[in-house]
Amino acid sequence: MSDGPLTCRLCGAAVWRTFVDLGSMPLANSYLEPHQAQDEEPRYPLHARVCDECLLVQVEAVLPAEAIFRDYAYFSSYSPSWIEHARGFAETASGDLGLTGNSLVVEIASNDGYLLRHFQAAGIPVLGIEPAENVARVAVDAGVPTEAVFFGLETAQSLVERNLQADLLVANNVLAHVPDLNDFVAGMAVALKPEGVISIEVPHLLKLIADTQFDTIYHEHFSYFSLLTVESALAAHGLAAFDVEELTTHGGSLRVWAGHQGRAPAPSERLLAMRKTEAVAGIESSEAYSQFAERVHECRGLVVDFLRSAKTGGQTVVAYGAAAKGNTLLNFCDVSVDDIAFVVDRSPHKQGRLLPGTHLPIEDPAKVVEARPDFLLILPWNLRDEIMEQMASIREWGGRFVTPIPRIEVHG
């Protein structure tokens, strides 16, 4: 870890300009066991910067990817809205691309098979690439062929040697998790059949800036993408975007469709429109990023004031969702169990453990009914509607929901 500039993981330039400095934090997904409560946790600088040359927003890789992702606590299948998102994508992509029993869908960072199983159900062969061995085992046990390896050029060449090039190569919410971006995208080009199609989903930097989504910044997210920087990364390895969709997932995402240069279709109207939208927003100028840090500190102040006011008024606060984004928020706001009694989460893989840094205990959602808090703070605010529906019973005792981003808001 250096106090000097970063070396841009896309273009190689020296990166000095601060986007936002969130201080020193534990890894967002490094959940603790109860016996570790008194242990001194390792903390690392979380300082996001923007490259003046290619405009990629990025943080330093403080640890090798192997140290972060070999054993991972996130399982996609515990969010009903995400499952529905996956089902809809599989159904639409299968039809639009004419996928059959002779096709192959390869997903990079396939997690527990949440997406590939929908292609399987339609009779389309699949292969998952998932570096987290504990998560990959869950997929394999569910009947989804999955290899527990990191994806890059070497893995892609292995797929080619085994005649496993993809007709559809899916990379949903993984590009941000890649420290060696060029090796990863080079591998995508190799792993894709000549006429194959790539689908990439990334949280949209434009939305991150507009809605002050600083909590989506954590060590496991090495990079933060605009359409501009996605296209730059693709072009560097002979790939070209031809279409883009705006999604509501993760607070606002892009789904970028791409293929090999010279074989991909001409840019769609949607792609041309998004390029223009980003240009109008100033995404092509590094000055456009300069006010973000100030708004982040304003947001922090509002969260701290809310928690202080609740405590002073004798009101109790419980949090929902042991999400990585919540850990960034809670640690940046210096929250402790004196402010929030506990957090609940539907995933049994997290229950019984402690949040990193704050050491809030993670409980089953049923404990909310037992505790009857005055406020339920929704940490994965992008799932607000889903969670408010699941936990609607808190209204029976006058409990209210709270979302922290883009500004703290109390919902009846």
The third-level CATH topology of the largest domain is Rossmann fold
Q: What spatial order of strands do you see in the largest sheet?
A: 8-7-6-9-10-13-12
CATH superfamily of the largest domain: Vaccinia Virus protein VP39
Which percent range describes the beta-strand content?
A: 15-25%
Largest sheet: 7 strands, mixed
Number of helices: 13
Helical residue percent? Answer: 25-40%
What gyration radius follows from the Cα positions, in whole Å? 21 Å
Tally of distinct domains: 2
Question: What does this entry show, briefly?
Answer:
The chain has 412 residues and is of the alpha/beta class. It has helices spanning 65-69, 80-97, 116-121, 133-141, 153-161, 181-191, 205-210, 227-235, 269-280, 292-312, 324-332, 366-371, 384-390, and strands at 6-7, 14-15, 18-25, 44-50, 57-58, 105-108, 126-129, 146-147, 166-172, 192-203, 223-224, 239-247, 253-260, 317-320, 343-344, 362-363, 375-378, 400-403, 409-411.
